[in-house]
Amino acid sequence: MTPDSPEFERALTGPGPAPVPIGLADRISAAAVWDYKVRRFTRRAAWAGASFAAVIAVWFALPPAERTPRPDTGGPPMAMVIDPFREADTALASLSRSATDRVTSSAPVLPVSASIFPSPEPVTAGPSVSGFPETARAAFEPVTATASRAVGRFFQDLGSATGATRGGS
Amino acid sequence: MPPTDAELVRGCLTGDSTAVRALVERYQGDVFGLCVRMLRHAHDAEDACQEVFLRVFRSLKRWDNARPFRPWVLGIAVNRCRTRLSRLGNRPTLVEDLADAPAREPPRGDESEVAAAIRVAVDELRDDYKAVFVLFHEQGRSYEEIAEAIDRPVGTIKTWLHRARALILDRLKKLDLVSEATPP
Question: Are A129 and A137 in contact (CB under 8 A)?
């Protein structure tokens, strides 16, 4: 008999593979599915951790002045209602006071200038009556006694008016 | 029509438990039979079989679908069995004690005695020879499939198989189970 003889070949041929234990496929399948889920979770967690670490690294790599968040200037435009009165009011309010005063203050009707109204000239006093001659003074008598007579008449009328008021009441 | 290996692999890559189950049922016989013969212990073979399939599922992305799937799986199984055997080393274990159990069984005739002697002789083979012998004689794989699984040329596989047969025959001759005068 030789190692390659057919008789020895038949003797070497066994009953075939060993029978598979019952439930082995269930156990292996469950282990494989569990392993798949664990590896997927681990892979995702690793990705998340790496991303977070990268963000932190970039954050600390930036200079401190640029870390403050900027105001959001983007985003979709907001709907606006065009109101001309409101716009005018807003525009006026945004101007400086010196600019608005020129518009809102009333304009002068006439230009005020000191040169238009000249200061009055002084009136020179006339010559006194006492200085006149006796003959001339007599001629001015009706004129000179006018003031004293007017005052006397005034007090006379005042007294008559007071007495009439008392009698009437 | 049953799904092809490539279709099952695509299902496994998407986490389809049905595809996983189908793939395990399709190849568990080959893998478990190889593990039992290599490790000589049923419980160790079950653990090794589970490890083999876990490694298969973890490595599915690296499988070239232009190549057959069975030799690829058997190659992973052979490597896992080698690793477990090298981890066990030469320390005396219960596995080695149980390996001699079939030889102590009462013979049920000449054929049974020869079969038991052959089994013991196969267990004592080198790991490479044993893997080639089991794949060829017990699982009926071709030289090409074995070469694909072991990752060796076909000529090397034929040489290893011839040496394995010679070693087994020497053992049978020492046990006087075969004689030189037996006609071919």
Answer: yes
For residue A15, give Cα distances in angstroms to A117, B32, B131, B141, B149.
144, 15, 17, 15, 22
Q: How far apart are CA B100 and CA A64, in angstroms?
A: 76
Q: Residue B94: is its pLDDT beyond 60?
A: no
Tokens at B137, concatenated: 């004689």
Residue for token pair 């001309």:
A84
- The per-residue b/e assignment along B109-146, b for 16 or more CB within 10 angstroms, e otherwise, is eeeebbbbbbbbbbbebeebbbbbbbbbbbbebebebb
Is A29 in the B-facing interface, judged by CB distances under 8 Å?
Answer: yes
Asked if B182's CB is within 8 angstroms of A20's CB, the reply is no
CA pseudo-torsion sign A77, A79, A83, A86: negative
pLDDT of residue A116: 66
Digit-coded pLDDT (tens) for A34-85: 988 898 899 999 999 999 999 999 888 887 776 666 666 666 667 767 777 8
- What angle is formed at CA B91 by the lines to CA B90 and CA B92, rounded to 5 degrees? 115
Q: Give residue A111's pLDDT.
A: 60
Are B29 and A20 an interchain contact pair (Cβ–Cβ within 8 Å)? yes
